[in-house]
Give the backbone structure.
Amino acid sequence: MSRQKVPQLICPAGSLPALKAAIDHGADAVYLGYRNDTNARNFAGLNFDRKAMVEGIRYAQARGRQVLLAINTFAQPGRAADWQGAVDGATDLGVDAVILADVGLLDYACRRYPDLRLHLSVQGSATSYEAVNFAHREFGVRRAVLPRVLTLAQVETVIRNTPVEIEVFGFGSLCVMNEGRCWLSSYATGESPNTVGACSPAKYVKWEKSAGEMNTRLNGILIDCFRDDEPAGYPTLCKGRFEVDGETYYALEEPTSLNVLEILPEIARIGVAAIKVEGRQRSPTYVAQVTRTLRAALDELANANQRFHVRPAWQAELARVSEGSQVTLGAYDRPWR
């Protein structure tokens, strides 16, 4: 039976149970982070201490899978040693690659550890092949994760003009901004994913319950008001409802999830190396469900002897864990262009 080359499936691991769920359900690799502000998902209860990371790496690699360590925030003044120490620790742990965004840290990693495989984080905001090629030429970057603002044709242009492997997002929560360049959380709180590793840090979040409704605030800013029969979302500025010209609605972005099932053949055709699932902050159940579904779809796509078609059961599975119970192709498909 002949097989078509398909992208790797890269899945989130915000905890050891999530890592095992991803590996057990077909991920080719998982990405994870330290339990500190060197990674862009620095929330209480998430991420790995050294003991859990050692166990997770052993679990994945024993099954022939890869572990990618995200050190993808930007080193803060006077604390460069903390980020450099994170890279040092990655080499000691034996991870398969390190995902970096900070140019200074990329320079440190490539000079100190020339054999360490480096990936350019989506937080590096490389939206052109010139930017990707710069990272390759200067720091030896082997793979780049593209921000979720490019059309599929633009992704193809990048791939055609770089020797670097290209990874794109395939499922999960969207970011309305170009990753690495969002200042909304910083505007409201003085802290952002790039500085402390958290969008809308929990210490600034406040829930106010009153008769029939729940208000959510971020550093005193009213983000949304939910009725008792509505699920109350976490207060992030980009996904809040605001009054504009007398009308209240999602002024910046509606809660929705990216889902590329229907364009998987095109993603494979243009040479995407890896598809990434968003969601280190999500549960092991979410990770298992999404991984299992995308694994089945990629395996069917790999079977060149049959025509690929999206199964309704796959869409139903992903719809159940989609943000706002909505899915979109996001920037990949812009019919109005």
